What does this fold into?
Amino acid sequence: MLDLGCCPGSWLLFACKTVGDKGLVVGVDITPLSLRLPPNARFVQHDVLAWDESLLETTGGDFEAVLSDMAPSTTGHKFVDAQRSIQLSESAMAVAVRVLMPGGAFVCKVFHGPDFKAFSDEAKKIFGRVAHFKPKSSRRASREIYVVGLGKKVTI
It folds into this structure.
């Protein structure tokens, strides 16, 4: 599993428990990770917006799942924050297209805004099934929603 924007590390640790001792979780974040990782985890400090193919040598490919809980530094302006979120989400989906094995899954947090539908429509081209999920723990006023893509198509 690849965890994009893994800091502070709670999802990374949860993913490590989920994949078990025989699985591997690679966390990527621009911010250094300060927690101690279990044996089935690796961390790479890198900016997802500046992803390059040489990073695949470090992270590997053929992941079964890509998780992105990335969120931009918020400004308080809903439109600007949504645009920044979409930019991160598009980068995460581009990485997922490169590294996910056929049939793989993608989970991505997005701030709902004007470009949300286009992002969701693009995900529908890549995955056999796409769903939207707003966790109960999320505040009602929060614009965050998760896009879940299941069954990455072999040809895109």
User: Anything to note?
Assistant: The chain is about 30% helix and 30% strand. The first strand starts at residue 2 and ends at 4. The domain at 2-152 is CATH 3.40.50.150 (Rossmann fold). Residues 78-99 form the longest helix (22 residues).
